[in-house]
Amino acid sequence: MNLCRKLFLLTGFILAFSACKDNNTNQTAQTTPQNVSVIELSPQNIPLSFEFSARAQGSKETEVRARVSGILLKRNYVEGSKVEEGSVLFEIDPDQYKVALDQAKAQLAQAKAQFINAETQWKRTDELHKQGFASDKALDEARATMDSLAASKELAQAAVEAAQLNFDYTTVKAPISGITSMEAQSEGSLISTTGLLTKIVQVDPIYVIFSASENEIMSLRDMTERGLIRNPENKAEIVAKVRFGDDTMYNQNGTINFINPTIDESTGTIKLRAVFPNEEGKIRPGQFLRLVMEGLTRIDALTVPQEAVMQEANGSYVYRVGENNVLESVSVKTGLTTPNGEWIIDEGLKAGDKVVVAGLLKLRPGMNVNPVVAEK
Q1: How far is CA 105 from the centre of its chain?
Q2: pLDDT at 29 over 80
Q3: Residue 8: is its pLDDT beyond 60?
Q4: CB of 356 closer than 8 Å to CB of 319
Q5: Which phi and psi angles does 374 have, rounded to 5°?
């Protein structure tokens, strides 16, 4: 055998040996289970937090209008300042109402004098009638005159009270305590009883109005009925907080004090109201805010990171390590989220399940894997 043939045979032997070696290596790699990062589920009680878009509103908002017409003489407050209930805001020219009041008082005095005279005449006639010196007709006429003048006296008294009211209305007082708006009429203007003078908004306490979807409310009610959410016996435990636009939190908590019994047909939402102390006026009416509601607890919750949950046409699923470390796909129903952003699993998993939390795109159901518990 010549040298060339020997080299050819040796080369073929080396190539065949290398191929066998590579094939054995691939088979070994395929049969070696892949390490996967998993978490083992254990039930825990999770404090719930809900956040909604909201807007501030004064707890009372009142339009201030004049109750008598006349010339506006004076404004006694600084626009945009806080006023107390009962303080005088405006003064209307009182002269014509003072004259009307004096006239009414004079008419009342005249009616009283006439009544006293008629009463005296009736008593005299009654005494004469008893002695037989006055007829029944004379007695009846005296009594009728006295009763008529008594009615006239009451009518004059009512006229005085009406005139006194009109005179008092020339000073326009604040019906509530709060912050005033700009004046709608300036001094010297002729105002009527229909004209707006200013507005007052009570800002302490202040309302924060927000809406929750019908589905959210129904879901919470359903989970409460199923015992998944603990509703505290003390309603004060359910607190409301406010987050401003710059992401800072308001330093005082509020309470939910109203839930609208009806659903808004146009939006499918239910309106709720929280009330907050606002002595320093940090929350202003009309301000856009975020309302954070806390105090409910999801009990015995199973949670997984959001990246462990995948989506398909039929819904959500996770990879779970089953018997003999075989990977399986499990359909799940996700519910609320935890404060740190994990999903709460309502259906599909149980305590002790090992759920894969990383490298999901490289995995397929049926694979043999080696579960490695991830550090939390």
Answers
A1: 53
A2: no
A3: no
A4: yes
A5: -80, 150
Q: Are 191 and 70 in contact, with CB atoms under 8 Å apart?
A: yes
Tell me how far apart the alpha carbons of residues 111 and 152 are, in angstroms, rounded to a whole number.
Answer: 6
- pLDDT-wise least confident of 3-7, 78-82, 119-123: 3-7
Closest CA relative to residue 355, chosen from 303, 318, 301:
318
* Coil, strand or helix at 323: helix
Q: What is the pLDDT of residue 59?
A: 94
The pLDDT, as a whole number, for residue 265 is 87
To 5 degrees, how large is the angle CA 361–CA 363–CA 368?
Answer: 165
Helix (H) or strand (E) holding 307: none
Question: Cα separation of 169 and 51, whole Å?
Answer: 47
On the CB side of 77, CA atoms within 13 Å amount to 28
Q: SS3 sequence, 209-260? A: EEEEEHHHHHHHHHHHHCCCEECCCCHHHCEEEEECCCCCECCCCEEEEEEC
Give the span between the Cα atoms of 55 and 217, in whole angstroms: 20
Please state the φ and ψ torsions of residue 269, each to the nearest 5 degrees.
-120, 160
Q: Exposure pattern of 225-255 as b/e (b: 16+ CB <10 Å)?
A: eeebbeeeeeeeeeebbbeeeeeeebeebbe
Angle, CA 180 vertex, CA 179 and CA 181 arms, to 5°: 125
Nearest-10 Cα torsion for 216, 222, 227, 232: 50
Handedness of CA 132, 134, 140, 144 (dihedral sign): negative
Helix/strand/coil for 329: strand
Residue 30 reports pLDDT greater than 70:
no
214-262 tens-digit pLDDT: 888 888 888 888 888 876 555 556 899 999 999 999 999 999 999 898 9
- Asked if 208 and 258 count as a contact pair (C-beta separation under 8 A), the reply is no
pLDDT confidence of residue 68: 95
pLDDT in tens, 118-164: 999 999 999 998 998 889 999 899 999 999 999 999 999 999 999 99
